[in-house]
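Protein record

Derive tokens from sequence
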Amino acid sequence: MRIGFVTTVITAGLAIALSGPRRGSGWAAQPDQGPPASGPQPGVVVRIYQSETELSLLPELVEGQLPNHVVLATSIDFDSQRADFGPFQERFVTQVSGILSVPQDGAWGLRLISDDGARLYLDSRLVIDHDGLHGPDPKDAVLQLSAGHHRLRIYHFQNAGGAYLALRWRRPGATQFEPIPPSALLRDEIGPFDTAAGPKRMIPALRRGRPGDGAPLQLPHPAFTPSPTAASAAPDLTDWLRTGRIQPMNESGPAMDQVRVWLPADGEPAAYECLLRLEAQPYRGQLVAARRQRAEAKRIILEEIEGRLQGGATRFGLLEGCGLREAGTPPFEIRSVRALANGLEVEFTRPLDPRVGWEPESYYLEQWPFDLSAAIRPHRDGQVYAVRSASVSEDRRRVFLEIDSLRPSHVLYPRLLPPCLSEDGDLPWSTEVWYTLHALPTDSFGSVRTPPPEPPQNVLSDLERQQGWRLLFDGQTTQGWRGWRKDHCPEGWQVINGCLVRVAPAGDLTTIEEFDDFELSLEWRISPGGNSGIFFRADERLEYPWQSAPEMQVLDNAEHPDGKNPRTSAGANYALHAPSRDVTQPVGLFNRVRIVACGNHVEHWLNDVKVVEYELGSPEWEKLVAESKFKTMPHYGRVRRGHIVLQDHGDKVWYRNIKIRPLSPK
């Protein structure tokens, strides 16, 4: 066994006291100040927390809860097949805390191997981000470390299947990674350790999309370039950082009673060192919080409410140093956010596409409480707030979000959700704002506007009727549909604004009728990171549709892992035939589909482009099936008549304008 236990495993039910872990104070060029005078103890502390919900990213554990299981281990190499995570096999979170004792200065390699996701922090700096659902894959980093003690934290989660977590290092000058020896893994927690049974409260992780959308920007801001000689630093504002008027949410700093704007936690090692004042339009008068080392900077938007400054922060881009000069065209992004008595006004640098902006569901909002007098920093509580309405201005540069419950002494977290794009088709440079709300204005109100009328949906033209088309969905009821192998339509599929929408766990939705040769037409819209599919000729005598039915994939290619493989991307004949190219609309807009199934001949059309064509039973098709997961399914693709099925893959998806016409085999 590769785990060396220093003491007995502690499981929920034993009454043992626990001393909480000491938080690091940020990245230090020199080693952490080290453990108490009593000296470090051998081994790291491993805590296991049970989750009652499925996990796809590392959640936030609500503070004050005891773990279900505690292990003191002298190596970091845990495998669920050896019961190293105690009695837990799935749906749990692991926290490893301790000290990494580095014997010499130099460039040290670290390798984090995890199944599922994990993150490694050293001296409070995020050094390896390996989050998400995946197998026991490695991810490496190289750090310049000084000899001595460094604060170590690993956060890991397991959803389903086998769990694994390991940390290895590569010594300076070496070529191979090796297990970290017990002498290098220490702790300053002396116990005793308390545990408690039952699932724990966990706040789901915020969605992580492309850079700028829940993830750090990887490029400099397009409108500016670093310039060491530029006079953009604001000496008159230097004290704002020193006195804590502007400070990160996760770092201990000056007295909190001075805070005007909280900056988001970003895991960077160094504190913000300078504030830059922007003079170029459309950002004139705004600030940029920057570091001298290369890191993501934040743009700060200030306003005065009731005689007090407050405002928001948003991602600016990578920046190194304390100087900027104008260099290019501003991207499409949020220019400013203003607090109103009845909501928020979001202003953009360019006009919105006429198709977007009006849907309240396109805006996500959390409010994170803080208490300056009690020195309580902002923290997520897991509550999501509804946007009552969204009103786009005539010039399409501003959107008023009507919100009933804005709360002072909270950091507002409004976030743009798809679809959001400019009139030129550009996605926003950054989608998030962290707005520190100290007070609401009493005399400034936003105006609710009537959205433009939608074109009619779920109707047939006279020509379509003449061509033999008929509706499979009337836009108002679920008539003609039921759950797969059920006699009713599950509540998780609902009719909303003329769409069949999967809103909660429900299982697949199938037509009551069966079809053989046909042309199917519909439109689909997928949620960010979402997955669904359209099956045809599905045999309900089998347990699942995919045991018999080919599938046209429905997917967010940009965020879902299946989008990386053309054969499982949107429009594909799932796992067998890749689309000729990606012609999907930006996530959040509807995509038009046609599926032609006539005899053995099948065509997939996406947004008026034929992206896939194949012959069932052909030598090429037989070869692809024999090389796929379908090789053990004797009925796959061989049923001549069956149901059309809309897949519930766990994500929100919309379907509308579902119509069909019969075809005659040639």
Notes: The first strand starts at residue 10 and ends at 11. Residues 224-437 form a domain with the Immunoglobulin-like fold (CATH 2.60.40.1220). The chain has three domains: 10-203, 224-437, 462-662.
